Every structure is written in structure tokens, then in C-alpha cells.
Amino acid sequence: MQKRDLLYAGKAKSVYLSDDPQRLVLHFRDDTSAFDGKKKEALERKGMVNNKFNAFIMEKLQAAGIPTHFEQLLSDTECVVKKMEMIPVECVVRNLAAGGLVRRLGVEEGIALNPPTFELFLKNDEKGDPMINESLAETFGWATPEQLATMKSLTFRVNDVLKQLFLDGGMLLVDYKLEFGLFEGEIVLGDEFSPDGCRLWDAETREKLDKDRFRQGLGGVIEAYEEVGRRLGMTFG
Ligand code: C5P
């Protein structure tokens, strides 16, 4: 697999074309951003840690029958993925209240959400990723009702698999964001799953082990990501 021209540089990852027209190369950079890019910093080792973390999780999901774009690791900071047509809608599931939900509704952080909630956001940096709903997504053509139903069902299946995986490592999966795309007409999980895009708390102490450490200036960001990986049986070298 040969990496070719840069296709797109996001806030934390760069996407390259490859010598296979059906495949792309994702490069996980050390760049870390929060608050719509207003807070930015390069955190040493983050690209490597997130690339390996993402590969581990994507393989677990694939093994559970959830289609993902992940194909293989290419280097410490790169992996090969299917070239998809991305759907510009972010799917968020929450098991415990935190972040945006606490801010919006004024509920107490950490309360259990039964059943877990499902929210949609438009992936649009300029507009600050506004919350949307199925009606808006259909009317504006961001996704069809059938696609949204599949995305919702896959997002909850991911919850079933990962809630237990993290619990086995003594962690609570508080919430997470997923993105999907179309590959050969099928809805496939894209983007990444790493502590950058989810919230994970120690099950006993509720210590934060995810990007909230960066957002809230708590320090030890990458050390926490590596700790999460270690608890799942990963080694980062
Ligand atoms: O900010 P909020 O509480 O709505 O985020 C919910 C979950 O989705 C968090 O785990 C957050 O890290 C993730 N998220 C993300 N990218 C966004 C928005 C949210 O990864 N653009």
C-alpha cells in the first residue's frame, strides 16, 4: 500500500489517497483540539496511541459483526481504511450524563441515563456542529430515514460491545460519538474510536481518562489514554 497525495487535513487526522482507488490512509497526528478548535496543542505520542487504540477497538467491533472502514495498521501513526462517501452526521450515545447534555439540560453530571440517549449533530465546523434531528437530516438531504435508522441501530450495537469491554477493564463508557459512511452501498462505521471521541471514567473513582483531561486542563492526557489501553490489554511500545 503506497500513500499518495493529501486529500484532507482535519483537526487531529490527515487523510491521504493511496495507490488503491478504494482505500485511503489515515494519519493520526499529535495535534489535539477542543472547543471547536479554540484550544489546540500537540501532545507527544498521541498520534501513535490513538492509531493503535482505534485499530484495537475497530477490530473488536468488526469481530462483533459491526462493519467498519478499518483495514490494517500501516505504521505507528497510520492505518489503511476503505474509501467511503461520508455522511455528515455525528451520532452520540450517552450512558451517563456529562458534557453537552449537562450544559444543555442542567442535569447532574454522572447520573445514569436509562435508557441511554441518542443524539444527532451536523458535522460542520463553521456552524459549530449544531444538534439536529432526523427530520432536519431528511429535509436537508444529509441522510435518508433508512440510513439514519441503520446508523442508530449500529451506534447502539457499538454500545453493547464497548460498554462491556470497558467495564471488564474497570471503566465506565460515559458517552461517545460515531461517524458513518457509505461503502459499496452499505452503511459502514468510519472515523475513529479513541479517548478523543468518547468519555471514559474509572468505574470506582470516576476519574476522567479521556479528552476531558485536555478540555479541563487536568494534565496527564496521554498517560490516561495509555492507561485505558493497558487496562484493555494493549501495549503501545
Ligand atoms: O460535547 P458532548 O457532551 O456533546 O460530546 C458527547 C461525546 O461525543 C463526547 O464523548 C465527545 O468527546 C464526543 N464528541 C466528539 N466530537 C464532536 C462532538 C462530540 O468526539 N465534534
From TrEMBL:
It comes from the Bacteria. Belongs to the SAICAR synthetase family. It catalyses: 5-amino-1-(5-phospho-D-ribosyl)imidazole-4-carboxylate + L-aspartate + ATP = (2S)-2-[5-amino-1-(5-phospho-beta-D-ribosyl)imidazole-4-carboxamido]succinate + ADP + phosphate + 2 H(+). Pathway: Purine metabolism; IMP biosynthesis via de novo pathway; 5-amino-1-(5-phospho-D-ribosyl)imidazole-4-carboxamide from 5-amino-1-(5-phospho-D-ribosyl)imidazole-4-carboxylate: step 1/2. This is Phosphoribosylaminoimidazole-succinocarboxamide synthase. Keywords: ATP-binding, Ligase, Nucleotide-binding, Purine biosynthesis. The lineage of its organism: Bacteria, Pseudomonadati, Pseudomonadota, Gammaproteobacteria, Oceanospirillales. Residues 7-231 form the SAICAR synthetase/ADE2 N-terminal domain. NCBIfam families: purC. PANTHER family: MULTIFUNCTIONAL PROTEIN ADE2, SI:DKEY-6E2.2. It is an enzyme of class 6 (ligase). Its EC number is 6.3.2.6. Pfam families: SAICAR_synt.
